[in-house]
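hey team, just a heads up i'm posting the complex here instead of the shared drive bc the drive is being weird again. everything in one block, sequence lines first with there labels, then the predicted structure for the whole assembly after. its two chains so it's a bit long, scroll down
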Amino acid sequence: MAKAKTNTEDYLRMYRQMVRIRTFEDNANQLYLSAKMPGLTHMYSGEEAVAVGICEALTDDDRITSTHRGHGHCVAKGAEFREMFCELLGKAEGYCRGKGGSMHIADQNHGNLGANAIVGGSMGIATGSALRAKLQGKDDVTVCFFGDGATAQGLWYEVMNMAALWKLPVIYACENNGYSEYTKTDEIAAGSIMARAEAFGIESHQVDGQDVLAVNDLTRKLAERARKGEGPFFIELMTYRYHGHHVGDINREYYRSKDEEKDWKENRDPIIRFRGWLVSEGIASEDEIEAMNAEIETDATEAVAYAEAAAYPPAEEVDMHVYAD
Amino acid sequence: MREITLSQAVNEALAEEMRRDETVFILGEDVAEAGTPFKVLSGLVEEFGTGRVIDTPISEPGFVGLAVGAAMTGARPVVDLMFGDFIYLVMDQLCNQAAKQHYMSGGKLTVPMVLRTNMGATRRSAAQHSQSLQAIVAHIPGLKVAMPSSAYEAKGLMKTAIRDNNPVVIFEDKLMYQDKAPVPEEEYLIPFGEAKVKREGSDITLIGTSSMVQIAEKAADALAGEGISAEVIDPRTIVPLDDKTLLDSVRKTSRAIVIDEGHQSYGVTAEIASRLNEKAFYHLDAPVLRMGAMDVPVPFSPALEDLTVPTPDRVVENARRLCGGEMIHAA
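-- predicted structure starts here --
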């Protein structure tokens, strides 16, 4: 694995954040399967190294825009389990008072401008945030997360053009998990995705999205350069989603095999890989890691129980927040 | 009082707000040195520079998206959309993104942006440069919609829009840019949701938006010659809509015609007429009449185009029939 942060605490926090995402998703999936959660949700499991590697390279002043598959970005940018589970269950104590749900969680205190249920819908928002930073002389960076499927949206090419013309501090982070909803990416993407960004003169990188240190190392370098006006940048992160397009997409052999899923889970899992590295480097013992995992599991269980018992928003909130004062 | 054009009024409003608040900036196609095809923004780039009057590529969804993101993170962008017809290109950014951020985030995120655009037919520009699409955005909760009817309104509404913490769409009638009106030198703002009674009358209420206010006023002049006293009201903003002023008038006159240049079906006229019917039914002596643009794409030929929009003559004719107790059946 590539070496990045040198501080033991940083490594352990990265591991913790990845496990928090996986644990959050496992619990969210259970809430769906037990019919306790309204609607559907899209699992981030398998892609943890992407969100954590990137967000650990950012500060609270740096912004991100997220996607329909956004729980991982939200956790990685600093959100709490309680408010997140409350939001997933439509409760008043959720990050958006239950009005957004899984696909619209926003946590502006940590710079998360929100998940977006339109594929590619936040590419303008991210680039606009970067334009604002440049106009106001701020040194924050905005990371725009999106999937390989979103590269088929025209908006991306419009905003990349402007970002490149004006040297905006934005990093386009394409999580290429190989599938555009229920279709193989190969069937929807002609040519090379990287070459599309390069066509605008945008420096582009491809990185193993299952290697949290490689992702973090690259992002730290690009974020610092973006702060100095050397942006924008494009990163294609090669990764995999363990679940279907959403939690209800269970019988998916018509578009991908169980053997393929098994291979990624057993041989390329970002958490197993990083855990092995932490132990081999003597940064943490197996016991310490197990203790961390157990603590996170307990946190999640408590947060779920809290959210299940929490109150729904009162009826009078239905027409609140349509307009700001 | 001095008189300036609607174009100058918009320009002054932007310049004053940009001097007052350095987070205000302008974004759009040919807004800087060109000052837009209508020259509304001429001179602003000289004062504020290309950092605050920003020419974009021809990428309407892209630059409206940028404005949403800039607004969500602490700026107050004013987007220039060269023709109102291009609203169809930016519907996702405007209606799914800008309009919904505040609500979806439970009130945490705000999108204080202005989308300046235009409307109005009879400029011989055919079906894709002549539409009046205010009803389409007025339908979307979370957006506010202003429709200035003169230079005075254009300035006061623009200043209010820039200071509003919500996405506001302003439709300027592109045929009115050179129309002059008295505009005070001193600063003023026009609050949203306050209609203006332009002329008092007792027999019928003519409610007009944007340039249809002038149509209504001309009709009122002609009706006065026939002994019919028409009250003319300009809602100024259709979202929020000042129901009270409209209802007070109709309860007094007991008749109303609503005039707007958008297509008549499912339009602004339909919404206002419905509200009057629902809330003033027992005060009405005749059905509230809608007068919108014909439900056809705007034709190029002047001989055809002029048939598609409300005119003073047609307003007079309808008012006469309503006041004469004639039954009017919708086509």
